[in-house]
């Protein structure tokens, strides 16, 4: 089997499933028609027609004899084990299950599908849609080299990936990089509103906020300089930034808020498991 003959099934093409799919259709590890997408919502299926992927409304509609290398469970944690039995036959045929659900551990899939099931957990994030995701991978001992290699190719198409050996870290991962884009989007919202309140036209406030967050993130990642030093380089003594940071850093306000937010997300991930 050549690489491009490999097939995968994506179960659920909502916010996160679609974000990952957007970068997969451009990657050369799986041909678009060999990406089988199962999504019950007609409106979401209709948005996939230009992707060249194979689209189904339910597991029953998948073609007979399909032998996927892996299937990706991108449904909500709350419905995961209602949906899981529909894919038992692919596990029995040697496929690995890849779950992106918050909280749910590999053991629960082993319990559902069988003790030696190959299970991959990935905590993705939505910037995967523009190949700028942070994808964190944990695999159990039953995942084969071929399955692992395909997972890494797919995750690379989505942006950067990291692997962890300790599954217990997944809740903290979820709280930082899984949920994290929402924190940053909220910062962008807040900067836009503040810019408008300071007198900027709406479109100008949006452009400035988005490009500033984008540029700062690229600079932090690409310069090799730590964030504290980069912050200090912006901050002229008794200048404008110092005036702003006196507000943001008073009593470690933002750090404390972020610590509480990440702790709340981690706790919720543990509860979902
Ligand atoms: N959103 C994010 O940023 C992130 C999400 N995740 C995880 O990704 C998973 C999906 O989240 P998200 O994309 O936000 O959720 P969505 O609700 O947007 O997407 C889930 C999709 O699965 C569909 N679905 C429900 N039942 C089935 C079924 N039997 N077969 C196939 N598809 C089905 C849903 O359809 P319908 O609505 O009609 O039920 C929906 O379109 C969750 O487990 C979440 O924890 C992880 C990291 C980040
Ligand atoms: O909010 C959630 O539960 C999912 C998991 C991480 C990001 N979104």
UniProtKB/TrEMBL annotation:
Reactions catalysed according to its record: L-proline + NADP(+) = (S)-1-pyrroline-5-carboxylate + NADPH + 2 H(+); L-proline + NAD(+) = (S)-1-pyrroline-5-carboxylate + NADH + 2 H(+)
Q: Where found in the cell? A: Cytoplasm
Segments forming domain Pyrroline-5-carboxylate reductase catalytic N-terminal: 8-103
Give the superkingdom in one word. Bacteria
- The EC class name is oxidoreductase
Q: What is its EC number?
A: 1.5.1.2
- Keyword terms, alphabetized: Amino-acid biosynthesis, Cytoplasm, NADP, Oxidoreductase, Proline biosynthesis
Q: Does the keyword Isomerase apply?
A: no
Q: Which residues form the Pyrroline-5-carboxylate reductase dimerisation domain?
A: 167-272
What GO MF terms are annotated? pyrroline-5-carboxylate reductase activity
Q: Which InterPro entries match?
A: 6-PGluconate_DH-like_C_sf, NAD(P)-bd_dom_sf, P5C_Rdtase_cat_N, P5CR_dimer, Pyrroline-COOH_reductase
Q: What Pfam families does the entry give? A: F420_oxidored, P5CR_dimer
What pathway is it annotated to?
Answer: Amino-acid biosynthesis; L-proline biosynthesis; L-proline from L-glutamate 5-semialdehyde: step 1/1
Briefly, what is this protein's role?
Catalyzes the reduction of 1-pyrroline-5-carboxylate (PCA) to L-proline.
Q: Which family does it belong to?
A: Belongs to the pyrroline-5-carboxylate reductase family.
Which HAMAP family would you find in this protein's record?
A: P5C_reductase
| Name used for this protein in its record | Pyrroline-5-carboxylate reductase
Q: Which organism is it from?
A: Ahrensia kielensis
């Amino acid at each position: 089997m050549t690489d491009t003959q490999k097939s995968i099934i994506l179960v659920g093409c909502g916010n996160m499933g679609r974000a990952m799919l957007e970068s997969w259709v451009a990657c050369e590890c799986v041909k678009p028609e060999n990406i089988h997408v199962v999504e019950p919502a007609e409106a979401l299926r209709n948005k996939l027609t230009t992707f060249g992927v194979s689209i189904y409304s339910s597991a029953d509609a998948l073609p007979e004899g399909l032998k996927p290398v892996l299937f990706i469970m991108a449904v909500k944690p709350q419905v995961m084990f209602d949906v899981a039995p529909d894919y038992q036959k692919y596990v029995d045929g040697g496929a690995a299950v890849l779950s992106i659900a918050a909280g749910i551990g590999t053991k629960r899939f082993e319990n559902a599908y069988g003790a030696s099931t190959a299970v991959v957990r990935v905590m993705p994030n939505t910037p995967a849609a523009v190949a700028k995701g942070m994808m964190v991978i944990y695999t159990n001992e039953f995942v084969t080299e071929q399955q692992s290699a395909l997972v890494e190719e797919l995750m690379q198409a989505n942006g950067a990936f990291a692997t962890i050996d300790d599954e217990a870290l997944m809740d903290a991962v979820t709280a930082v990089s899984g949920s994290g884009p929402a924190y940053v989007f909220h910062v962008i919202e807040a900067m836009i509103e503040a810019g408008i309140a300071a007198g900027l036209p709406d479109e100008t406030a949006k452009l400035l906020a988005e490009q500033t967050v984008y540029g700062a993130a690229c600079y932090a990642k690409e310069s090799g300089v730590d964030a504290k030093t980069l912050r200090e380089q912006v901050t002229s003594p008794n200048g404008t930034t110092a005036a702003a940071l006196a507000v943001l850093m008073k009593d470690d306000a933002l750090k404390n808020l972020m610590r509480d937010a990440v702790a709340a997300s981690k706790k919720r991930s543990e509860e979902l498991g």
